[in-house]
Amino acid sequence: MLVHRGTSAQCWKYDLSQDRSLGGSVRIGQSQGSFLTHRSTNLLRPAAAAISVEQDDVNTYLPKGDMWSVHKFGGTCMGTPQRIQSVADIVLSDSSERKLVIVSAMSKVTDMMYNLVHKAQSRDDSYMIALEEVFEKHMAAAKDLLDGEDLASFLSQLHSDVSSLRAMLSAIYIAGHATESFSDFVVGHGELWSAQMLSYAIKKSGAPCSWMDTREVLVVKPSGPNQVDPDYLESEKRLQKWFSRQPAEIIVATGFIASTAENIPTTLKRDGSDFSAAIIGSLVRARQVTIWTDVDGVFSADPRKVSEAVILSTLSYQEAWEMSYFGANVLHPRTIIPVMKDNIPIVIRNMFNISAPGTMICRQPANDNGDLDACVKSFATIDNLALVNVEGTGMAGVPGTSSAIFSVVKDVGANVIMISQASSEHSICFAVPEKEVAAVSAALHVRFREALAAGRLSKVEVINGCSILAVVGLRMASTPGVSAMLFDALAKANINVRAIAQGCSEYNITVVLKQEDCVRALRAAHSRFFLSKTTLAVGIIGPGLIGGTLLNQLKDQAAVLKENMNIDLRVIGITGSSTMLLSDTGIDLTQWKELLRKEAEPADLANFVRHMSDNHVFPNKVLVDCTADTSVASHYYDWLKKGIHVITPNKKANSGPLDRYLKLRTLQRASYTHYFYEATVGAGLPIISTLRGLLETGDKILRIEGIFSGTLSYIFNNFEGTRTFSNVVAEAKEAGYTEPDPRDDLSGTDVARKVIILARESGLTLELSDIPVKSLVPEALASCSSADEFMQKLPSFDEDWAKQRSEAEAAGEVLRYVGVVDAVNQKGQVELRRYKRDHPFAQLSGSDNIIAFTTSRYKEQPLIVRGPGAGAEVTAGGVFCDMLRLASSLGAPS
Ligand SMILES: NC(=O)c1ccc[n+]([C@@H]2O[C@H](COP(=O)([O-])OP(=O)(O)OC[C@H]3O[C@@H](n4cnc5c(N)ncnc54)[C@H](O)[C@@H]3O)[C@@H](O)[C@H]2O)c1
Ligand SMILES: N[C@@H](CCO)C(=O)O
Ligand code: NA
């Protein structure tokens, strides 16, 4: 077989007459007269001779090192003329002194080319039509991309290549067979054409650019089935030679194709163009090799399984290596070898998202700061495995047992994926693909029949349905605490580990688990290492006025919090009284209402809470009770006990039975689980936090007095002139100030609850029933069956109210509904009082609360907090504030 390099036609020609596999009867291409080697007059020389002549006079200079930047663009990047143009733009925007650009064939073309060969050798003459399609595709692309002389010369080359291919394929058709090198020759045209098109596109901008047929340069030798090794020395000589002839600043080179030392066209097999880029990067000692693709970089886990997966900014060569073994879509391990030896970084970048910085694979990751979590780079899983466990006392101290086991495994051709043996030597277990395990087990039973019969081996056991979770990271095995973190995460997720292997290579810890647990294990482990410690999984109970407003506030603010404070809030559940909506990773808050309507399931608080506690993706969980429900509040104790934080504007727990309250607070103080309830008093106003601040710094509370009801404040602030009482109550309800049942406000119960909350916070041990309350609910309406009925009947009492008001007015006074915590006398009280018009309590407007703290330090003048104390936005804001307080207790920056 003879192979020749062409001149400007730059096409390799086969002399099929020498290929015995084709019967030596066909000749192609000679009539075209393009068999001149470059700048040579030798006609039809045997390839080996051609090389020796050219090598001898090589004395050229190929600049090497930092000035070179190597780029590789895969088929998707070269998919359309527009994309080829974008590739040209990317190359031109690189300011490196010299650029070497490796390209794949346009997307789908390699398959089309293999298909041509396949058709021809199966004697399917539709290969002619298929070849025409290949031609059309490239012609159309070129016409779109190029014009003038460039277009003409590309098309003439394309024509001539296609006619050679036609002849070649017809030969294959006749022989009914294609050798590997024939097939490689045909297939390699995809790269030849894409490289030429790109180089013309770059040249169009005026930049000096040549294209390189890498078969002239890259020499490889077969090193195994479907695998080749580069011959660096020979390739470097040829590259020197090539460069001495065409020293352009930009070189576009064909990926994937190469030649043997005998100049037979071949390919880099499955390692493909990435391998080309790495080899060439190494030949020129490039400053960097950039692999352009359609993803933002290398993920920390398969993003289809772990929605929290992140793009890694750096990876060491070895980590990339490990990860590609586990199927991460990184680089083929062999691809890394050429650049690794020269410490050339490889950067994986997304051509369709230039703003993403990508992942740099290099020797020493820059951000390796020694943190535990930085030791772990990624997680991967392999499914459909079986564990084989060979067990018996006869194994200990008997050399050769493992060798015997694994030679059996080898003989049946099974692939051992992981091995683990405890040092007691009583068992060896290893994982193989499930489909291979039957053969392995049968062969082991045969091989160890005697040992089993004699009891030296007790069993050869197969455990089906296993998966591997592999954790990859540099220094992992040598850093204390990493495996503890991993196994703790798995334990918390209630996942049983069947076997463990950790090589001393330090790059990988592998655990075998039940396949059904695998994704859960992956998520739990990933979140432990990758999620911000202030990621909060949130469950909202009661998406009514306050809960709904809170959800909307979260929707608007979540991104800012994540960006600025590293606080990641994920609402993973919303439950109302009839339906609930659950999500494992976070509900889309832009459409929570719609989702709750359409995709919800029947509400079930126990299941809702289970959903929260079973979630192992998120390190912290909080339930936010936005109901006014006593029974919901009765669960706080259990939730806190489960480690779920609780936040609420619901007053029921803190104003309920004293013993339960004390039990709850004792638990809260003893644990690191938090319970916040600022919005229970004064809505978003800082009442609880002010009181706590006073107490915790050693101040002594003497008296807390104020207007604690937004509703009643509003009513008496607006009950003026000709307005009726019932009308103003309706307005307060409409404005969202009232409790779900406004009688809770008018009866004084709501104020009494707030008084109790503050009293207990101040250390008083009072029950709600200890507080004398003046109710404003007319006795006759106390028994109304619904809030609506109450509101309907309220106008009949307007006259009574008008009378009370005018009496006060006549005395130059106003009516105000106040609550008092008398800490000195350990009492509380709620009543309707009259205040002079110039009293601060008479100056309020809207739903204002005013709370005056008289303390040892604030004795002459009380500390006063005043402002709107009811309403959707301020209350939800107060609850939100508690969520951030929680995040900051968990370590969020302040
Ligand atoms: N409105 C305010 O200005 C204000 C101010 C401070 C505190 N609060 C408190 O906020 C809470 C909510 O008030 P709101 O005005 O939003 O009331 P709301 O009636 O509008 O909302 C309560 C929601 O909880 C739901 N719910 C009731 N029981 C439930 C259960 N067992 N499970 C699940 N969902 C249940 C209801 O269906 C409703 O959607 C109350 O505790 C209230 O005291 C309100
Ligand atoms: N209904 C309550 C809401 C705030 O707790 C009020 O009017 O004050
Ligand atoms: Na408050």
From TrEMBL:
It catalyses: L-aspartate + ATP = 4-phospho-L-aspartate + ADP; L-homoserine + NADP(+) = L-aspartate 4-semialdehyde + NADPH + H(+); L-homoserine + NAD(+) = L-aspartate 4-semialdehyde + NADH + H(+). The keyword DNA damage does not apply. Its cofactor is a metal cation. Keywords: Amino-acid biosynthesis, ATP-binding, Chloroplast, Kinase, Lysine biosynthesis, Metal-binding, Methionine biosynthesis, Multifunctional enzyme, NAD, NADP, Nucleotide-binding, Oxidoreductase, Plastid, Repeat, Sodium, Threonine biosynthesis, Transferase, Transit peptide. GO terms for cellular component: chloroplast. GO terms for molecular function: aspartate kinase activity; ATP binding; homoserine dehydrogenase activity; metal ion binding; NADP binding. Residues 390-465, 471-548 form the ACT domain. Pathway: Amino-acid biosynthesis; L-threonine biosynthesis; L-threonine from L-aspartate: step 1/5; Amino-acid biosynthesis; L-methionine biosynthesis via de novo pathway; L-homoserine from L-aspartate: step 3/3; Amino-acid biosynthesis; L-threonine biosynthesis; L-threonine from L-aspartate: step 3/5; Amino-acid biosynthesis; L-lysine biosynthesis via DAP pathway; (S)-tetrahydrodipicolinate from L-aspartate: step 1/4. In the C-terminal section; belongs to the homoserine dehydrogenase family. In the N-terminal section; belongs to the aspartokinase family. Homotetramer. This is ACT domain-containing protein. The lineage of its organism: Eukaryota, Viridiplantae, Streptophyta, Embryophyta, Tracheophyta.
